[in-house]
Amino acid sequence: MTQGNKVIFRDFTATETLKTSKNTKGAEIIPPQNLTWTNNWNTFCSFETDQVCADIPLNQCPTCRHYSFWLFFTLIFLLAVWILLANSFVIAYIIKRKRSLRTSLDLLKGSLAVTDLLTGFLLFTTALPNIAWTTRLTSRQLYVETRKLADTPVAIVSATLYLLFIYSTLYHLVLMSYNRFAAIKWPLAPQTVKKTKINLLLLWLLALAAASYPAWFPGFFHFYYTYFTFLFLPNILIHSSVELGQAVGFFLLIVLPYLAMMVILSATAILILRGNRKAREQLSESSRVQEQIIRREKTVLTTLATMKIGFTITHVPTIIVLGLSFIGISHPIALIFMSYCALCNSAINVLIYRAKDQDFKDFVTNVLGRNFRWRSTMRSPNPSNNRVTSAV
């Protein structure tokens, strides 16, 4: 509703798309007298917050659970620290590894670790500052600022980066699955490091194109700040077949690669089982060597399968909840949990490396052990100062 140079927005819920137009940009946004828009924000505040704290900062509002804010802030901070430190170990391991010993799988792990590392930076540069910024605002100020941020460059870039980490992780797993399948199916044509670098460049370009897909259609998709997740997310409300087609296209960019990943993984498992059975039937020295190779491939396949399970647990529920929000079905608590659940995958991958990759496990143990020994040496007294001079 527009009154001269003032735009008045009525009731707002978590599933409403925040739309901006040329005639409203720059206009003063005046909240309605009876605010009801944060009624869905019962994760941190009660239903009376709009009325009681319309002009009181949320961090001072008596109807808000302040311990919930600080607990959530602490959990996100610890998650970000763990992601940054753990993935730094992976990148250091790949860099320190001798160039002659680096494989295409090592490059893929390093590139995936970069994706996970950027996820930690996203938490530090977006989620944590947004939590602090949001709690310093009153309910009316948050109402106004949320609408000002709708479809702004900040909202578009931040939401695109969030999607980029999801797509990039999935596309890395697809490429890793295909590399293992190709190595077993065509052992005489292995994936070279140079070819892997080209594939990684194409992978990042494809992931960036897929993540920016909503930005290609500004008339359908909108980017807004969700005050209860402290993140910028895309949204589209489906009212026609055209909008349904746009939403379907958005999800096909992640559903099809996910299905391809599962098919490739299953095909790789079948090849390994067949090769193992054939090696057992042929009792010869060459068959024993082949059985050792297959045993090593089984270990790699187990690692990939574990990573795919981690991706499924953390990302698939997020995609489902985000899709339900497109048709107006969402719950703030579910959305806030699933939004950060997807980012937790960046912390899980390192745990999988630590458990399945013996070389990486030895590298981490040596680094931590060397650091511990160095600190112990610095703290211990100098032996030269403790010498006892014998009496003559």
Structure description:
By secondary structure, this protein is mostly helical. The chain has one domain (68-357): Rhodopsin 7-helix transmembrane proteins (Rhopdopsin 7-helix transmembrane proteins), CATH 1.20.1070. The chain is built from twelve helices and five strands. A three-stranded mixed sheet has the order 1-2-3, with helices on one face. A two-stranded antiparallel sheet has the order 4-5. A hairpin with a 4-residue loop joins strand 4 (222-226) and strand 5. Helix 2 runs antiparallel to helix 3. The termini are far apart.
Highlighted features:
disordered C terminus, 392 residues, 5% strand, Rhopdopsin 7-helix transmembrane proteins, mainly alpha, two-stranded antiparallel ribbon, 12 helices
Secondary-structure-derived class: mainly alpha
Number of strands: 5
Order of helices and strands: EEEHHHHHHHEEHHHHH
CATH topology: Rhopdopsin 7-helix transmembrane proteins
Main β-sheet: number of strands, strand sense, barrel status? 3 strands, mixed
**Can you tell me the number of structural domains?**
1
- CATH hierarchy: architecture: Up-down Bundle
Report mean pLDDT, rounded to a whole number: 77
The residue ranges in which pLDDT falls below 50 over 5 or more consecutive positions are 1-24, 383-392
Q: Class in CATH?
A: Mainly Alpha
Give the helix level as a range of percent.
55-70%
Shape label: elongated
Distance between the termini: 101 Å
> Strand sequence of the main sheet, in spatial order?
1-2-3
Radius of gyration: 26 Å
Strand content: under 5%
In CATH terms, the superfamily is Rhodopsin 7-helix transmembrane proteins
The number of distinct helices, counting runs of at least 4 residues, comes to 12
